[in-house]
């Protein structure tokens, strides 16, 4: 069973699924769904359509150059069945998948770091813009003390008035 890739969005196309378009020069194009087929017929560029793998790779959203991608290449030459080779291949596939996931996680983490820096800079700019709204804690504490003194003196005056009557 060969799992093909969609020509437009690069998602997997399983046997019996999707649409296959064959051009007059015998070039075949496989599409996973009608959305991809229609976009292809409208001559849309996959690198400019935001939801495709091509866009994500072209704009640095996903890992592009990595040695683990070499193993996913399509091979047309059939290999004679060998039990030991098959066992080693299956073991290698699992190992490669683990390595690939680790690298992708590291890539995403590094990508998010730059976003955090940008967010921090934006927050600094916002604070600088509204610095006049912030006050020194000592000034605030002094104002609170003055207000308390005024309340206490107001109560004392009220008591004096009551005792004078």
TrEMBL record:
Disordered, as annotated region: 139-165
PROSITE patterns: RIBOSOMAL_L24E
Aminoacyl-tRNA synthetase recorded as keyword: no
Assigned keywords, A-Z: Nucleus, Ribosome biogenesis
Domain TRASH: 6-44
GO term, biological process aspect, one: ribosomal large subunit biogenesis
Subcellular location: Nucleus
Main localization of the protein described in the UniProt heading: nucleus
Protein's UniProt keywords contain Transmembrane: no
Secretion signal span: none
Compositionally biased residues, Basic and acidic residues: 143-165
InterPro entries attached to this UniProt entry: L24e/L24_sf, Ribosomal_eL24, Ribosomal_eL24-rel_N, Ribosomal_eL24_CS, TRASH_dom
GO cellular component, one term: nucleolus
Domain of life the protein comes from: Eukaryota
Molecular functions (GO terms): structural constituent of ribosome
Family of this protein: Belongs to the eukaryotic ribosomal protein eL24 family.
Protein name: Probable ribosome biogenesis protein RLP24
Source organism per UniProt: Suberites domuncula (Sponge)
């Amino acid at each position: 069973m060969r799992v093909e890739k969609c020509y437009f969005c690069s998602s997997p196309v399983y046997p019996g699924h999707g649409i296959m378009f064959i051009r007059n020069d015998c070039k075949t194009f496989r599409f996973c769904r009608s959305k991809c087929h229609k976009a292809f017929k409208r001559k849309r560029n996959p690198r400019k359509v935001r939801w495709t793998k091509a866009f994500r790779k072209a704009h640095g959203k996903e890992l592009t150059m990595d040695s683990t991608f070499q193993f996913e290449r399509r091979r047309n030459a059939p290999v004679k069945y060998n039990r030991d080779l098959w066992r080693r291949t299956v073991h290698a596939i699992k190992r490669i998948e683990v390595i690939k996931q680790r690298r992708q996680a590291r890539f995403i983490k590094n990508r998010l770091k730059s976003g955090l820096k940008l967010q921090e800079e934006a927050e600094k700019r916002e604070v600088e813009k509204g610095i006049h709204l912030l006050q020194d804690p000592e000034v605030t504490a002094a104002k609170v003390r003055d207000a308390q003194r005024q309340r206490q003196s107001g109560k004392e005056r009220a008591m004096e008035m009551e005792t004078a009557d």
